[in-house]
Amino acid sequence: MTLIEVLVALAVVAITLAAGFKAAGGLTLNAQRLNDLTMAQWCAENQLVALRLNKSSWPAVGDSDFTCRQLGRDFPGSLQVKATPNLNFRKVDAVVFDENKQVIVRVSTVVPRPGV
User: What is the tens place of the pLDDT at every residue in 42-69?
Assistant: First the structure.
């Protein structure tokens, strides 16, 4: 083999390895994002289920903050309660943020007035 053939072969191997490392890094980031999304979804759903289970009180219109702990991590969040055209219902959005205050997930539901 000539020196040029060896250099070309090394260049091909280097490009292939670089592409492999980039793909592996992308998979790692996607796995972390999926993990964060799953835990944030749990937090949001837990807040909304707690509202539905508390049949003795009705959430007041406005925003309130909460913190949810999942698998050793704290997720800040906000419950946003809004009035609806039907006075017997309220729309509630549970928004969960990451450490940089970027929205991870938003889950919405409608809560009926107690006794309706």
Answer: 999 999 999 888 877 888 899 999 999 9
pLDDT at residue number 52: 85
Nearest to 82 by CA among 63, 98, 57: 63
How do strand 103-112 and strand 62-70 relate by DSSP bridges?
unpaired
CATH topology of domain 3-112: Pantoate--beta-alanine Ligase; Chain: A,domain 2 (3.30.1300)
Q: Which two tokens stand for residue 58?
A: 């009705």
d(CA 35, CA 96): 14
pLDDT of residue 116: 64
Residue 12, SS3? helix
Alpha-carbon distance 28 to 102, whole Å?
20
